[in-house]
Amino acid sequence: MDVKHGFLKCRNRSIRSGTPRGTGGYPRWIIRAARDAHGAGDGAPRTRASPDRPRGQAMFMRWSTDELPQTQRFEQWREACRQHVYALTPERRARGAFQGSISRHTRGGLDVTDIRCDGHLVRRSQRDIDERPGDTYYIYLQGQGRVWIEQQGQRCVLESGDMVIADPNIPFSTDTDRVFDFRLWRVERRRLQSRLRLGSAGLAMHRIDRSCAERDLITCWLDGLLHHHAGLSAANSELAQETLHALVAGVIGAPAPMQEPVRRARRRALLLRVQGTVAQRAGEMDLTPERIASAFGLSLRALHQLFALSDLSFNEFLARTRLERAQAMLRSASCLHLSTAEIGFEAGFGEVSTFYRRFKQRYGITPGEWRAGLAPAREPAR
Predict the structure, then answer these.
(1) What CA–CA distances, in Å, run from 4 to 11, 173, 174, 366?
(2) What is the mean pLDDT of residues 247-269?
């Protein structure tokens, strides 16, 4: 991310993922899933994005204390937190240098904030809540270090990779030994409430250990949403949000009518994880469905049933991933020392003839012609 210090900077942009587009993140299967989801009856009403988060407009903001005078940093930090996180009451334990940064990305129902700062006590009091109640719940994902959060007499200690789902409209306090380093996702309050059966006390703070499989599904889906939201149609964006809220409801404890939507959401998220692993390992020539199934503790039949949610079978997805990787490598300056055949091998193809044939089938030109700068004879099928 670009660093902008001492002021707010808003502009349209997308955040790049380490996973190649089209091979990880939200795959093409979501198009089919969106068609199948209409009229499926998730047992919860659809909601619209709030007016202050218009669908279709993306905003990226970064705020930092770096260029502020030391005497003004913590006071300015208080105001930045109130504007871009929640109404909070930060309290500094010690004098001296203070550093902090906030990065926020919003688009439609997407609202994710990354925070890193020196340690201090943070409270959200009833007065803060009355002044500025939240219309969201939050998913807190711990980065480096260790923090504690206390709410309704419950105290959670979080280490790297741990997650908490909680209600910002219930007073809480939090602190850390060294630095705060976390990602905060806000999810629509009405949409999640419709999937839960909450008592008068509201949503109790729910901790999800980093070793929990459901935590991995939620994190994978959130990452996909962040990195690929810009390419989603309105229908697929809605499906992505529905899936996210069903995943969260499932880990908190969804009532019986929501169990089937939760099951479908978990299958979509598991497919996303599997596809991400296939994309990462696509360069292995001996990668097989059996190896991937074993890595996820699935039977071969279950793996192929999972890919039935997609427009591509396992083998089609693997071949498509390898072709896209080869296509990028052929025009990469870092691969100029490799022949086209060597690039095919690096991409995961075991035979040169197979690589050349499939490349031309997909793009309408040979790998050598693409490397020479010729345009594809046709747009590749999606």
Answers:
(1) 12, 29, 27, 44
(2) 92
- The residues with which 61 forms a beta bridge, in sequence order, are 10, 104
- Give the distance, in angstroms, between the CA of residue 241 and the centroid of all CA atoms in the same chain: 11
Start-to-end CA distance of the chain, whole Å, equals 29
pLDDT computed for residue 108 by the predictor: 73
pLDDT of residue 47: 36
Residues 6+ apart with CB under 8 A from 188: 47, 50, 109, 135, 136, 241, 245
Q: Where are the alpha helices (DSSP H) in 331-363?
A: 340-347, 352-363
Count of Cβ atoms closer than 10 Å to residue 211 Cβ = 9
Neighbouring C-alpha atoms within 13 Å toward the C-beta of 380: 16
Q: How far apart are CA 316 and CA 23, in angstroms?
A: 12
Q: Into which CATH architecture does domain 10-279 fall? A: Sandwich (2.60)
Classify domain 281-371 by CATH architecture. Answer: Orthogonal Bundle (1.10)
- pLDDT tens digits for range 310-359: 999 999 999 999 999 999 999 999 999 999 999 999 999 999 999 999 99
- The domain segmentation of the chain, as residue ranges, is 10-279, 281-371
